[in-house]
Design brief:
Helices cover about 15% and strands about 40% of the residues. A hairpin with a 2-residue loop joins strand 3 and strand 4 (about 55). Strands 1, 3, 4, 6, 10, 11, 12 and 14 form an 8-stranded antiparallel beta sheet that branches. Strands 2-5-13-7-8-9 form a 6-stranded antiparallel beta sheet, with no helix packed on it. The two termini are about 25 Å apart. It is mainly beta. The radius of gyration is 16 Å and the shape is globular. The chain has helices spanning about 1-20, 130-135; strands spanning about 25-30, 40, 45-50, 55, 65-70, 75-85, 90-95, 100-105, 120, 140-150, 150-155, 160-165, 175-180, 185-195.
Length: about 200
Amino acid sequence: MKAKIICTFLIVNFITLNMFAQDPVLKSAFNGKNLKGWVVPENNIWWSVENGILRAKSGPDKKGSILWTDKEYTDFVIETDFRYDEGTVDTGIFLRNDKEQIQMGISGSLKRDMTGSPYIVGKKYPVEAQNVKEILKPNDWNTIKVIAIAGYYEVWLNNKHVMSYTSDSYVKTGPIGLQLHPNTEMTASFRNIKIGKM
C-alpha cells in the first residue's frame, strides 16, 4: 500500500512538471452577464449577476446553495477573483463532487479563516494553507488558482503558492462548484472565472 502511494505521488509530480511546462489555456467560464454555463439551482435566490460580478448571498432560511458548472472536468485548473463582502463568509470551490473542496473564508467548524485549505469529508482539513493571513487582502479583491490532477491539489493565492495535498478519495470526473454554505449570513463576490483542461 505504501509503495502504491509513493508511486502515485511520483506520477502526479511528473504530470505536474509537464503541466507547468505546457501552461494550460484558461477559458472564461463566466460571461459577466448571466449564469449561462452553470446549473442554476431551482427557485434560485442565492446567485445573481450584476456589472460583471457573480454574487452569492444567503437567503432568509440560510439554506445554502451550490452553483455547478454545466460541464464536467477530469484534470483542470480554475482561477477566479473573489471578495468577501458581508457577514461570516464561508464558501469554497468543490472539486468534481460535494465531498472535496478548497475552503474559502471562515470554517464553520474551526471558526477561523481557512482560505486555500482542502476540506475533505471524513478527514476535515488534512493540511492547512500556509501564510494566508499575510497574503489575503480583507475587503478587497483577491485571486485564487486551484489545480486538480487526479487527487493532487495545489492552490495559489494572489500568485503565492499556499497549499499542496494528495487525496486518496477523489472523484475522477465531475463538475466544479461554487459554494454558499448553509447556516450563515454572508455575501461573497466572484469575477473573471476561468477554467482550463489539462
